[in-house]
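Exercise 7.
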Amino acid sequence: MSLYPICALIVGYLCGSIPFGLLITRAAGLGDVRKIGSGNIGATNVLRTGNKGLAAATLLLDALKGLLPALIAARYGIELGAAAGFGAFIGHLYPVWLGFKGGKGVATYIGVLIGLAWNVALIFAAVWLLMALLFRYSSLAALTACVVVPIALAALGRFEFALVFAAMSALVFYKHSANIARLRTGTEGKIGAKG
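Solution. The predicted structure, written as C-alpha cells, is:
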C-alpha cells in the first residue's frame, strides 16, 4: 500500500512537467517563450508575446495538469490525491524535460486546490480578486491568496491538505523572490500597466 502514494506522486510529477506554455508558443510559430520577458514558461510570460488567447490557453492547461491528477487520484484516497497534486505542482516548478527550470506554479496550485478542496479554491479566488482590485499587483494577490489557503484548510479541519498546501505556498514564495524584491522597491509591474 505504501507504494501507491509514491506512484501517485510520480505520475502527478510527469503530468505537471508538461511545459504547455513552451509547447503552445512554439506550435503557434512564436518561438521559445523562455527567450522573452522573464524567461518563464507560465501564462504571464506567454501574455508578453501579445497573444491573449495563447496566454489563456496556457493558464487553463497549467491548471488542468494540477486538477486532473489530484482529482483522479483522490477518488482512491485523499492521501493519493494529495500526493498526485503535490507531484504535479513540483513537476511544473521543476520539469524534467526542461532541465528542472519551470514556472512559478500559481496556475497549477489553483488546479490542485480545485481538485482537492474546491470550496477553498473559491476563497483563493476571492482573496486574489480583492487584492488585485485594491493594489493591482498580480504577484501580491497570488502570494496573499497562497498564505490564506493553508489557514483556511486548517480552519475547516482539512489538516491533511493544510500541510501540503503550506509546503506548496512556501515554494510559490520562493519562486516569486524576484517579484517580492520588486514589490519592496516599488518596481513591480501593475495589472494593466504598459511596458
